[in-house]
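Holo model, LLP. Inputs:
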Amino acid sequence: MFPIEKFKNLQTPFYYYDTTVLKKTLQTVTAEAGKYDYHIHYAVKANANHRVLSLIREAGLGADCVSGGEIQAALDAGFLSSKIVFAGVGKADWEINLGLDNDIFCFNAESIPELEVINELAAQKNKVARVALRINPEIDAHTHHYITTGTQENKFGINLDQLDKVLDKLANLLSLKLIGLHFHIGSQLTDMNPFIKLCERVNELQKQLDKRGVSLENINFGGGFGIDYEQPDDRLIPDFKKYFEIFHTHFSARSGQQIHFEPGRSVVGQCGSLITKVLYVKEGSFKKFVVLDAGFTELIRPALYDAHHKIENLSSEESTAIYDVVGPICESSDCFAKAIELNKTQRGDIIALRSAGAYGEIMASQYNCRKLPEAYFSDSI
Ligand code: LLP
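Output:
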């Protein structure tokens, strides 16, 4: 799967994207969503690499953005502004203006003060901004607490008991047009039950809205579909069939209602790996450390969320030994894995950290004055 001879000539660490995997994933997601005419807006936050974005745009997806920078990255990669949605709890005025100037499809708004600002900025431009209300559906996604978003204690969304007040307010904001509701309950969900609960919650909510005479053209269920970090090769392409079937089965869409999703990780996660070289194998008193030339500056997920990425030694076929795998950054949290089995490892071996296509390259930093990693693609390396 990996062109290791080619890797030997490249400066590590770098990201490597398998375009065949990405294209197959895109074919699958568009085919499965297409069965029900669902609209897919790729969550740019997962990976905003220009080539990655361009391939996603070529497959016909829209873009879910959370900042002016992401809107610009999506526009630069050729996404149609009519397929861009803009979410985020703290949209700055310039970011709202960028969305208005480009006539994006929708602002997913999270509070009354935000709605007032979008209204005012739209009025200044003699425009009417399309908005959806991001509702906090109060559903626990049972995922890492840093990436759970749909419970009351989170900063995200409008709480269910405040919806009436927000709708009353909206009636007076004449430069806004309410076109839908938006939800996102968390990320890396592998248990599908929270998605079923979300459908049921939205069904109830629609009944309540009927009583107010409010009917909405668009329902956006956000992202969150998880990937297999343990055994990536067993499920390189996530089971989008199963995922969309859940919504088709459990959500009672009103006639003509358009259904939207914002997958990030499930689209790009498995196509990317962080490729790094072994600098030293250090024998401590109790354990052996593999010291890599990549650290949390290139892939922060293990340090930040205790996330697991499968680690493979691409250079060795020897029997295995037990190692802690660490990076060169001057912090103890710069550790990719503890006490894992790796084929016997030595200085110069090339290592792949798998499933790093989502929230990898995009979350890289320059701490310790390190260089941001390069990216290479399987079809142009
Ligand atoms: N829509 C909204 C409103 C979101 O907040 C997110 C992710 C998505 C869509 C895409 O979710 P996905 O399909 O990728 O799960 N850095 C963390 C993940 C943070 C996710 C934040 N929101 C990680 O590395 O696991």
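The first strand starts at residue 14 and ends at 17. The two ends are 14 Å apart (CA to CA).
Archived with the compound record.
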